[in-house]
Design a protein that fits this description.
single chain, 112 residues, mainly alpha, 2 domains, two-stranded parallel ribbon, 4 helices, 5% strand
Length: 112
């Protein structure tokens, strides 16, 4: 099962639909999302540990496309220094175009 933008999935959907499917045979879950905060359902879910082993319940791979310096300078939305890490299933060119689109949003927010 693949969940796109899993951080925005309703908890009820996870417990009523996703969790039962995961109990069947060799079912797997690939959950892709932008982490929006430390308290959303998805973030809490990926940090869960198996109480009997103390090991994480999920294997996670975190890809950040903003370098530490830009984060520290409050320029996360402008950073292009980590685009070489764009996952193989995504397009670097589309990320570049998205960056341009986000500039329009940031400009309109600053004008209002």
């Amino acid at each position: 099962m693949i969940l796109e933008e899993a951080a925005y999935c309703d908890e009820g959907f996870f417990y009523e639909t996703v969790a039962p499917i995961l109990s069947v045979g060799s079912a797997s879950l690939v959950a892709i999302s932008t982490l929006t905060s430390e308290i959303n359902f998805y973030t809490r879910l990926i940090k869960m540990q198996d109480p009997s082993t103390g090991r994480p319940l999920f294997v996670t791979r975190s890809i950040e496309l903003c370098c530490e310096k830009c984060k520290e300078d409050g320029k996360s939305h402008e950073c292009v220094h980590m685009l070489h890490l764009v996952p193989s299933w995504q397009s670097q060119e589309r990320h570049r175009k998205l960056h341009v689109m986000m500039q329009v949003r940031l400009f309109s927010m600053s004008v209002n």
